[in-house]
Specification:
The chain is α+β, with helices and mostly antiparallel strands and about 600 residues long. The chain is built from 20 helices and 23 strands.
Amino acid sequence: MDKQTLKRTRIFILIIILIFFLLLSRLAYLQVINYDYYWGRAEKNRLRILPITAPRGEIFDRNGRQLVANRPGFTVSLVDLGNGYSEEAIVRLAGLLDMEVEEINKTIDSHYYRRYLPIRLKMDVDVETVSQIAENRLDLPGVVIEVQPIRNYVLGSFAAHLLGYLGEGTVTEGIMDFWQEAGYHYQQGELVGQAGLEMVWEPYLKGEDGGLQVEVNSTGQAIREFERVEPKPGANLFLTLDASLQRAVEESLGEAVQLQLQEGNSYAGEAGAVVLEPTSGRILAMASLPAYDPNTFRRDYPELLQSPGRALLNKTMEEHYPVGSVFKMVTGVAGLEKGVINRTEKLFCGGRLTRFGATKSCFRGTVHGSINIVEAIRKSCNIFFYELGLRVGIDDLAYFAREFGFGEPTGLKDVFGEKGGIVASREYKEQLLNEPWYPAETMDAAIGQGYCSITLLQLANYVSMIANGGVHYRPFLVDKIIDCEGNVEMVAEPEVLHTMEISDLTWQIIREGMGLVTLPGGTASRLADFPVRVAGKTGSAQVAGRGSDIPSHSFFVGYAPADNPQIALVVFIKYGGTGGTSAVPVAREILESYFGVDAGQEPEEDFQQ
């Protein structure tokens, strides 16, 4: 071998040695110096922590009937295996799940903080779709099928506005703060209550999620289980609601609305009712129509937004209305307490009245003649209360209206969204229009028209206060909470928010008039033959800005038994006409359900407002 060849051979050997040295150095760097780091990455690719969703607490009525439960269902999720998400797999998965590719990408983008954790794409997937995904698992890296508890609203749309629904939508800062005060820390992307009891009582219903450590293959499919931490189910809610009574209320309201539509009243379509226990504030029933099915809420949401009946709005507390004649007891209490009228004094009703340049009429121009306050309540005489309102004055009318709780929320904490309504007053008109109050407007205020606007829950509280002697109890829906181990976490007690200082004589006179309303000659005489004595008041409220051909809102408020009240109720049929013809029949069916009375033949009468 010549010198030149030997030199080249030595150089070649040195290069090989250098290469081996570099490889050994790199190997030592990976296997020795950075062993922990790369071992951790390998384990992360091999092992996954799959969260196990805790079953939410269930919801029951006062008699233990299950209203909201959980059932097992398949959830399809997507996991980042370390190299991002396969676009090809997303396209294929979109076809299998009947979703748009953009929808999946949007979901991924909104859950960027959950890398290496499953991102839920679709819940409650049917078995056929799950089978198709399993068959194509090699082409769907990162796709995970989990069995998770699915919320089941047992009776569909039953009490939907009270129970609420779940979702991953935006949670306001105020709600997060409220939850945090109750000890629950919301994590973005969690499936949580978005309305009703589901939202307010989220900290109790949520439970504590568990976890499962699994070994996965290259496509992200679990092949072996390791450590498992069982989830802790949420606590159960037991409500004051009576499911049988609630069902009767919803069905009766639905039938009344359908009857209105069948009779050609195209304006009808909305209704509501509240039934309270006047000695405690317990809500026995609370219905708003139309409603929605929480089981299909997310699918139906676009249609619900366009619903002409505003199905998403709880008519019992998120909307306020002119209430008409059911307000007259406020004017009566004000007049009696201020001493401008007494039990025996009579005022004359000639069917029409002109005061301060404004001419007002009694219902359909009816002439009642000389009547006292008891008869005025019984016959719902507008002229009497116009005169009485002028005697009382707007300031005292507003004061007593507020004493009954009008103009501010009743205090319900179990469901958010309660409105305060409006009390007709000088201050309100000044703020609204920057105009002074005119005496003629006091006549409208005296019969619940004009600027007066009240929620159905406020009306139920109002008639409860008449029944119990002026005590404003905080209305409530959740009676007790029991955790998954059977421990009682909370028991609700009646809470007095305010007590009116009204004489016993005033209450006696007002109740006497309301007791006559449901007897022959009264505006609610459809209840005259009811086996349990009922006290009440009808109302038909004209809607400002609407033509004379538009029907009035139909109201009935009452309590029973009249001498020992157990329930107080309000019934509302939007654009239903007079209270005696639309709201009273619904009230009768509600009372029949509560007292277990068989429906009987109703007497024929010429009903007024």
